[in-house]
Write a structure and sequence with these properties.
heterodimer; A: mainly alpha; B: 86 residues; mainly alpha; 87% helix
């Protein structure tokens, strides 16, 4: 789609990208008072402010510190340690509820006759790739840092699904239902497999069979990071397949 | 400060939920429902429940609005096929 202002728009987007990367570069390598991501102390990182593991708001005493090890359970905030570690069985039930609802949608939604699609306006065509890429990045960040900061598999998976919905506005008919189904089944099998592997190791369902590591590092928290990764993949593919069922057009072999 | 923000956003949520009923078309109602979810996510941020805020913003404001729009589109297409218009 060519219009008169295409060159102006391209120039504007290019300038915005340069500004954006300058902001990111300054934050990473030349922050306030000459600090950067290598020289900053552990106690000044963002995730430090979420490490409390204490529900009493009157006296916020830290029960764990950044860099600790040898605790019973290695995630940094208390919601994560309850949801994925102590009560992981409930989370399995939630995933099953979501799976049942998506199965109902797939049962009820029929196919739709293919129609001529009105092309999107130039605002959407310019903005959607950037917005959806940023949304996907934030979703992946939230899933990977599920054991350090608030959030985890469910919010991150929902954000990734939202990014794919934005992409559907840009270009319809690129979601393949078979690939989504395969990814979702593999992630679900992975969760059940992790649970049974813990049973084989120690006799408890969802036993933490990975080393806990130091609190506050990326690869820590034992089984929590693995479970949140699998839950995020499963939720993202399920919600995206709802979108593809609602669009419901026949897949073309082009 | 905290209480005034909560009261103002609560009143906004109530007002926009009433506006859903009196909107002119169904599509406008769907958009106003998304606005209600967006204000709710701001309230969750003020209550320091960040994960719930992210979930509310992504599911309530994006996915639910998209589902409403797709179902409205399907309904209109079925109506056209029944009445024979093209």
């Amino acid at each position: 789609m060519k219009t008169r202002h295409q060159n102006m728009l391209n120039l504007f987007v290019f300038l915005m990208l340069i500004l954006f990367s300058a902001v990111v570069y300054k934050a990473l390598f030349n922050g306030e008072q000459g600090k950067n991501w290598r020289s900053i102390a552990k106690s000044e990182k963002v995730s430090e402010s979420y490490i409390y593991k204490n529900v009493n708001e009157q006296n916020m005493v830290k029960t764990v510190q950044m860099g600790d090890s040898g605790h019973e359970e290695g995630s940094a905030n208390i919601v994560t340690s309850i949801v994925v570690s102590y009560r992981a069985f409930d989370t399995l039930g939630e995933i099953l509820v979501l799976f049942a609802s998506i199965a109902g949608v797939g049962l009820l939604m029929g196919k739709r006759r293919k129609r001529t699609v009105v092309p999107a306006s130039i605002v959407i065509q310019t903005a959607i790739p950037i917005v959806s890429l940023l949304t996907l990045l934030v979703g992946i960040f939230i899933i990977l840092h599920g054991h350090l900061t608030p959030g985890g598999g469910f919010p991150g998976g929902a954000l990734i699904a939202g990014g794919f919905v934005f992409l559907v506005l840009f270009k319809e008919n690129f979601l393949k239902k078979k690939i989504l189904l395969a990814v979702e089944s593999l992630a679900g099998l992975g969760i059940i497999g992790a649970a049974f592997w813990g049973t084989l190791k120690n006799g408890y369902f969802f036993f933490n069979f990975l080393p806990n590591g130091n609190i506050g590092e990326l690869f820590s928290g034992g089984i929590v990071m693995l479970l949140y990764l699998l839950i995020g993949i499963k939720v993202a593919s399920e919600l995206t397949s709802v979108a593809s069922y609602m669009i419901g057009e026949e897949e073309t072999n082009s | 400060m905290m209480q005034t923000v909560l009261i103002i956003s609560g009143l906004l949520m109530v007002a926009s939920s009433i506006a859903v009923i009196f909107a002119e078309s169904v599509k406008k109602s769907a958009v106003i429902m998304g606005v209600v979810s967006l204000i709710a996510s701001v309230v969750f941020v003020f209550m320091k429940a960040y994960d719930v805020a992210i979930t509310e913003a992504s599911i309530g404001a994006v996915l639910t609005t998209a589902l409403y729009f797709w179902s409205i589109k399907r309904y209109e297409e079925q109506n056209e096929e029944l009445t024979g218009e093209e």
